[in-house]
Specification:
The chain has one domain: 2-Layer Sandwich (Translation Initiation Factor Eif1). The protein has 2 helices and 5 strands; from the N terminus they run ββαββαβ. It has helices at residues 65-79, 97-106; strands spanning 41-46, 55-59, 83-86, 89-93, 112-114. It has a 5-stranded mixed β-sheet with strand order 3-4-2-1-5, with helices on one face. The model has no long low-confidence stretch (mean pLDDT 83).
Length: 117
């Protein structure tokens, strides 16, 4: 992350003002979030969890925790199964790889591919 250089006092942002003519403060977007089209999302069938039962593991999403929770909820509803978010990965119960890939592409994650065998 680059440091911002300060050329003059005008470059400083206003924290609080009682002046009614002061310009509104513009909040910066989170620079760590990448556009949906540019994210390399991978979906794989994973069976190293509970008693070898297969799950669908989605990784490579660079989203906030709230966005991951919402996305997980949408995928669970469309597949009709359970799932959770853990360590920036979404885990969906059962072998739902093809369904999940189609759902993610429909939601705007165009660079979604199957990982593994």
């Amino acid at each position: 992350m680059q440091k911002k250089t300060l050329n003059s006092l005008q470059d400083l942002s206003l924290a609080y003002s009682t002046n009614k003519e002061a310009p509104p403060i513009q909040e910066e977007e989170n620079p760590n979030i990448v556009n949906k089209n540019l994210q390399k999302v991978r979906v794989e069938r994973y069976s190293k969890l509970k008693a070898g039962k297969s799950v669908c593991r989605i990784f490579g999403l660079e989203e906030t925790d709230e966005t991951l929770e919402k996305l997980c909820k949408q995928i669970k509803q469309k597949c009709g199964v359970g799932g959770s978010v853990k360590d920036q990965e979404i885990i969906i119960q059962g072998d739902q790889v093809e369904k999940v890939i189609n759902i993610l592409i429909a939601l705007g994650y165009k660079n979604t591919k199957r990982s593994g065998g």
